[in-house]
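Q: My labmate handed me this sequence with no annotations at all. I'd like to see what the chain might look like in three dimensions before we decide whether it's worth expressing. Could you predict it?
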Amino acid sequence: MSAYTLTKTRFREGTWEGLIVAERDDAPPPEIAVTLEGAPVRGVIVAQAGAAGRWAIEVPVPVEAVGDGVRTFLINDAEAGETLETFTVIAGEAAGDDIRAEVDLLRAELDMLKRAFRRHCLETG
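A: Here is what I predict for the chain of 125 residues:
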């Protein structure tokens, strides 16, 4: 289990920002690894944030991550091997259609399951 927690503070001008807080004030700076589709993200900044046991993190969204589709960034505690936080960038015309299509499919499946469950209840009740 990670000794750190990460909370998003804002996402602005292509930079995701957050605050890392350690369980103990005397904890060493965290080893953070940010990945996008399995590749490391460059330019990540982790800096002391005033009080002991607190660090600010800045994750730049690389140009290659901006395009049609969905991209998910993983922010990991490299030492503990745990994901502290994720964020997603969705862009392009196709992304909106994909999401709407997925929601429509989920609704149809839910309606089918409700009918099957009701039928089951009538047959066994």
